[in-house]
Structure formats: structure tokens, C-alpha cells
Amino acid sequence: MANIKSAKKRIKVINKKTLRNKMIKSAVKTSIKKVIVAVNAGDKEVAAVALKNAISAIDRAYMKGIYHKNAVARKKSTLTRLVNSL
Q: Within 13 A of 28's CA, how many CA atoms are on the CB side?
């Protein structure tokens, strides 16, 4: 355990940021899964709506610095290719 006051504060801040990042990543994964489920069901309309929501969630996570830009591009590209395959 840290003895210095600033180190104790850093531990608190890091834990708070880690929790926030984990929540946002979980939301992104859920939105991606919704797209995949819709594609597997063969429902193009639902998949298109889910894709729009997923891309929005991924972009929000990128703006908060949670994902690297190349990872974001890869995720969006993969999902778009899935939906377009219907």
C-alpha cells in the first residue's frame, strides 16, 4: 500500500478510471454482439439499426481514449462487412 498522499490519490483515480473504461468497453461489446445476433438471424433491418448504434458506441469510446483509432477502424469495418453480406 502506498504511504505518500499523492500516491494514494493516484490509486483512487486509477480505480475510478478503470471502472469507467470497463463499463464503456462492456457497452461496446454488447452493441457488437447485437449486430452479430441480428446478422445470424438474417434480419437486415434490425442489423442495420444495430450497426448504427454499435458504430456510435465505438466512436464514443474512441473519443474518450479507450480504443486506438486502428482498433476502432477494424471493429467498424468488420461489422459493416457482416451487415453488407446479408
A: 22
> The dihedral of CA 62, 65, 66, 68: what is its sign?
positive
Residue 1 has a pLDDT of 76
Q: What are the cell numbers at 11?
A: 490509486
pLDDT on residue 29? 98
Concatenating the DSSP letter of every residue in 27-59 gives: HHHHHHHHHHHHHHHT-HHHHHHHHHHHHHHHH
Among all chains, which residue has been given the C-alpha cell 475510478?
A: 16
Using a 10 angstrom Cβ sphere, with 0-12 exposed, 13-18 middle and 19 or more buried, the burial of residue 28 is: buried
CA–chain centroid gap for 5, Å, is 34
pTM, two decimals, is: 0.88
